[in-house]
Amino acid sequence: MNTSVIVAGLCAGAALILWPSPTWLLCRITSHSGDRSESVGAPDRPDDPFTVAAALDLFAVCLRSGLPVETAAQIVAASAPETLAELLGTAADLLTLGADSDHAWTMAADRIGEAGGGAEYCRSLATLVRRSSRAGASLSAGVGELADTIRHRAEDRALEKAERAGVAISGPLGLCFLPAFVCLGIVPVVVGLAGGVFSGTL
């Protein structure tokens, strides 16, 4: 009895010594938070295309309601994905300061390219706005078509990935089920026939 009490006391003491202190836990939390804050502004993954399409639909709705381009861009930038929000926010700021539409959207698209965003839809949207400002065409209709194009491309890519996954998984599944089929379906029949032949019943 005394030995068990002593062992339990030693284990409890070791646990208290090895248990992480609140300061150590706080250091872990603050270090991870700092790493996360430093990574903001450099997304590892591209924006979700369906979210981008929804933001462009909102941009088209704002334009159809009669809002100026810079006002609509500011509204959409508040809830748009990061790359698109940067494009719209930069262009809206330049337009508010009195910059020409062609110059504002060109600078905004170039900034996205320099930042490494590489978003194709940002360049397409900037080109669309520049053409609309030059020719006087309906910008809302073009933005809506761009949203539909992005959505359809994303659906096609998702379907293509699903088909590739189905083809890739057929090989491992075949390797798993074929031995089981042979062992459970063919081997018992062959053994039964062989047993009948050797016993003289067949």
Tell me briefly what this model is.
This protein is 82% helix and 0% strand.
Q: What's the order of the H and E elements?
A: HHHHHHHH
Alpha-beta classification: mainly alpha
Q: Roughly what is the average pLDDT, rounded to an integer? A: 74
Work out the helicity level.
over 70%
Coarse shape: rod-shaped
Describe the largest sheet.
none
* Low confidence ranges: 22-43
Task: Quickly count the helices.
Answer: 8
How much strand content do the residues show? under 5%
Secondary structure tally: strands: 0
Round the Cα radius of gyration to an integer and report it.
32 Å
Termini separation:
74 Å
Task: Characterize the structure shown.
This protein is mainly α and 202 residues long. Helix content is 82%, strand content 0%. It is built from eight helices and no strands. The protein has helices at residues 2-18, 22-39, 49-64, 69-77, 82-96, 101-114, 120-135, 139-199. Helix 7 runs antiparallel to helix 8. The longest helix has 61 residues, at 139-199. The model is unreliable at 22-43 (pLDDT under 50). It comes from Gordonia pseudamarae. It is found in: Cell membrane. Residues 56-183 form the Type II secretion system protein GspF domain. Keywords: Cell membrane, Membrane, Transmembrane, Transmembrane helix. InterPro entries: T2SS_GspF_dom.
Indicate the topology.
Blueprint: H1 2-18, H2 22-39, H3 49-64, H4 69-77, H5 82-96, H6 101-114, H7 120-135, H8 139-199
List keywords for this structure.
mainly alpha; rod-shaped; 202 residues; single chain
